[in-house]
Amino acid sequence: MPDGPGVVEDRYRYAGVGCVTFMAGAVSGTMIAVLIAKLVGDARGCRPTPGLPACDWHVYAFVGMLLGAITLPFLALRSLRRRNATASDSQRG
Q1: Cα 76 to Cα 70: distance, rounded to the nearest angstrom
Q2: What SS3 state is found at 88?
Q3: CA-to-CA distance for 15 and 80, rounded, in angstroms?
Q4: pTM here?
């Protein structure tokens, strides 16, 4: 596959989208996971230490961060690539 001007621009676009969605996915995944930790703690009857959001919140936060940091960029880049492939197919005729 030749490296033309469009290919280089696409690489920068993918890198930008990937970086932004990586950070957004990590933060949003962490927040959602801590909410789940709070709900699970309430269901188990766990009383968190004062000043902490939930029991075992750090475990939930880490797993949520990993899931969010992987899934959001994957889904965003997959959608972007599909859109670009559809656009290039329609330009060919």
Answers
A1: 10
A2: helix
A3: 12
A4: 0.78
Indicate the length of the chain as a whole number. 93
Rounded CA-CA distance 13/90 in Å is 20
Q: What is the largest CA-CA distance in the chain?
A: 64
Tokens 């920068």 belong to residue: 12
Per-residue model confidence as pLDDT tens digits over 51-93: 999 999 999 999 999 999 999 999 999 998 888 777 666 666 5
Q: What is the DSSP string of 9-23?
A: HHHHHHHHHHHHHHH
Angle at 68 between CA 43 and CA 38, to 5 degrees: 15
Q: At what angle do helices 5-44 and 57-92 cross, to 10 degrees?
A: 150
* CA pair distance 26, 64, nearest whole angstrom: 7
